[in-house]
Amino acid sequence: MMSWRREATFEVMVEQDGRSSIDRVFDEERPALERAQYLLRLAKFPVVRVLRITRAGKEETIFEKAVAGGAKPTTISAIDGANLCADVLQVFSFESRMTLLRLLRAYFDEEQVIPSEQLHRYSALRAFEREALLFGPALNRLAALQAPMLGMQPDERHGQLERLFHGLKDLAQHAASLAGCDAALARGGVAGLLAATAEHPPEERDRIVTHAVAALLEPHRDWRPKVTALLRLREDGNGESVRLVDEFLAETVDGREPVRALIGYAPDLASALHSLVETERGALDDRLPHTAELLALSEAIGAVESGAGGFIHVREALLRRVRGGLDGLTPLTHEGGPAEAAALQALADRLAVFEGYRGGPAMAAALTRRAKLAFGNGGLDLPFEDAVQRLIGRLRGPAARIGYLIDLASSGLGQGRAAVLGRLLAEEFDHVRSAAELAPPGVSLPELRKVLGGRLRDAGVPPPLVTRLIARIGAVPETERARLARARAETLDLAKAGPAALGLTLSHAGRRHRLSGEGAELVLGRSPDCDVQLDVAAASRRHATLSVRDGQFVLTDSSRNGTSVVLPGAGTRRLHSGDALVLPALGEILIGTADQEHPPARLVWAIKPLR
Known about the structure:
Number of strands: 17
Distance between the termini: 96 Å
CATH topology of the domain at 497-609: Tumour Suppressor Smad4
Strand content: 15-25%
CATH architecture of the domain at 497-609: Sandwich
Strand order of the largest sheet: 8-7-17-16-13-14
Shape: globular
Structural class: alpha+beta
CATH class of the domain at 497-609: Mainly Beta
């Protein structure tokens, strides 16, 4: 005979503003009482109770306690976009999971789970359905966003969403049928899981994959172990494993609480944001006291950043958290004043890339808003144009300055300031000497005109001004043509010499190092056993390697902080860990930046025929 505990369920109820809702449902009394005690310690709800409900539907209160006060209740977040689902299986797609995550960010943070976990738990779905402050408002918000896409009224879409949710609960009740795929992931990793999904219809793939990952994460109730478990799924050389891990990691780190757990201790907001930027670049310094999980995430990003689709979603999620920190009211430092300005300058420098600032229009707007505060004086914000000019001054090339202005014009902050931004854009274009300054190596002039023109138009720049600006780079000056011709001739001369007759000379700190012969190499780094020892803080122990491969001289980066390569006539190229670059006849390697405590290491190379 079964005990009465097996014949009943236990509902943990909370009360807020005189309204009761279910927090969770348990099959046994003990975990229900433990959950109730946990909620009481949070001091979030005035009343917490546990109900015993028999199969016949009879309710009995077995625990009830009131506390003074009550913290702010969990509610939905403001979102302005939502992925559209016509079928319940589409709810398991990455885009839909991210919509749910952003809409219910506070709920998932509090539960310390991601949507992929909760979508398969019937008891969690049922409890959520009875959360008056979450379920109804969430459906209302989704209906309001999606109804115009479907050409219907919000109440009609609301009914469809309710039916989708009931379908989700039905699937959760039969989730045990997917246990075989869970085992395939545990045994054979991502490759084993994908092989198992081949036996099912393609439309079920997302449901199967999320269920298997949810089973993997089930023992891990904290954010950092979840990240570790997901990183273990990445298989070297397996692009599909990187893609899947990228999606689930993005689902995990796209929130304030997970990021706080990953960062661990940070003395101030600027330090925390700096850690996120360096992680997004795959260049977090292992000499600093970061958590092991954040270092592992950075290493994973750095290892595949140059590959196809290398952690795109994770990097976007990290940049969203950086933007969120910049847009908040928390000071960057505890000192304020000059320290605040210096902290923002250092952060802006880390975000700078060839075409502007990482993160596009939203980041450009966030940096500008923070610049108005950080560079202000006497409690007064800096005027908009002055803040923009300060950020322009942190960017080193015309492509970066023009890219930042275009991004800013495309943002909500830039709208309504078209006259100011148009004038600043015109001034920057007036200083452009050649098309090569506006495009990275390999981009043709027609491509540059098309892309840049499209970006200007999308940013709302008036068409006559767009036409004038694009015409400004319509032709490469004759001096530039002559210089490019000389460079091509020099390259041809080297090609005629043949690989066996070429040698590379590397000059650094008054010493020269020579490299020639297939398979030869020079290792650059801080370690005493490197061929070229670098005495700068930004250098890694084994920072980069120069080698001869198939008759070409190749620079391969293996650092945490990256390497800048100055290519005559083609600007500066930034390499990250794993990147490789075939070197032309002349150039310069920079390790470190001028704003750091020590000047950067400068290494000049020249490739010439051997005598």
